[in-house]
Design a protein that fits this description.
By secondary structure, the protein is an alpha/beta fold. The chain is about 40% helix and about 20% strand. It folds into 2 domains: about 200 residues, Rossmann fold (3-Layer(aba) Sandwich); about 170 residues, Rossmann fold, CATH 3.40.50.2000. It contains 15 helices and 16 strands.
Length: about 375
Amino acid sequence: MRIVSLTSVYPSPLQTGQGLFVRARLQHLPPAAEVKVIAPVWAMDRSVPGRRTDARIEVFHPRWIYIRGTGAVTAFLLFFQLIRPLRSLKKEFAFQVLDSHFGYPEGIAASLLATVLQVPFTVTLRGSELLHSRYPLRRMLMGWALKRASSVIAVSEQLRRFAIALGTDPARTRTISNGIDGQSFYPQDRDAVRRKRRLDPNQSIILSAGHLIELKGHHLAIRAVRRLLDRGVNVQLIVAGGPPGRGVASYEGELKRLIEELKLSENVRLLGQVPRDLLIDLMSAADVFCLASSREGWPNVVHEALACGTPVVATRVGAIPELITQDAHGFVVEPNDVAALTDALHRSLTTAWNRSDISGWACSRSWEQVGREVLDEMNRAVSEAER
């Protein structure tokens, strides 16, 4: 199977931390698959080479011009700017399927590109599609593209149902959730990690991670910390995450103003973007991981925190109910409910957790398993397209 994968979030030398879940899935496809990645980068990012090798995968970084505020036109801009590099690639690498990540803009662009290149295409839905579907034209175009796809892979059941609601044939949809890197994410001695990272051994620590954007709900976690302090709980919130990518408004200023307003400068730390090894340590050091998002697909940070043996309090969005299936692993609350979030965090800080059991549940699904399932689905999709 020869696959070209289209994604705008594949890690690059300039942005090493983005799209790690996309990279993990592609790198763990079985050896029977030969994969090349088309990962367009901003036209002005001259520090990123046009072509490079990342482990087993050859990665191409064609330049494209992203114009903020163009809405659905973005997908057509991506299409027009990728026709030439993909035609050139097909001459040297006769790929059998175009594999795209995210319904917008990649899925729409992939549908157009697949028509020109005369190959079947697949789309993986990862969560942002729910936000884009609020815009009628984007929703219509996503529906058009998904109905044309040979396969629609969703990382959660919610997203698979979303695809079907847009008119996709249920027989061409499949839920394939993300996996976990058990070699990196596993329980560590909490006290030892706190000493290593110079964290107070006597203070309860809540960890939240994700870009500093409103939908990640960091502001709700901050408000919950104020309420916990008012209840007499000695607690600190650590937020690991930097500003969002190009075209998305940052919420950092609002978070800083809220911290000042609630007098939480001693109890809330905004660390910015952190290295992967530090995030892993923080997950093991925390008493509980909190994700108060208003929208998610398959939130890898929740999966990773659980793999570290840390209980999670998160909102009922995306695949979170599939990740936290029982109270032995954490608590699920409704979105935008600060009172419920506070109560769940308070309960989590007073519960004796079995961290080995939590980790065992999270590590039961590997990236190797994900890769096998994805390749099986692509083989099915290509076989049907060739009939």
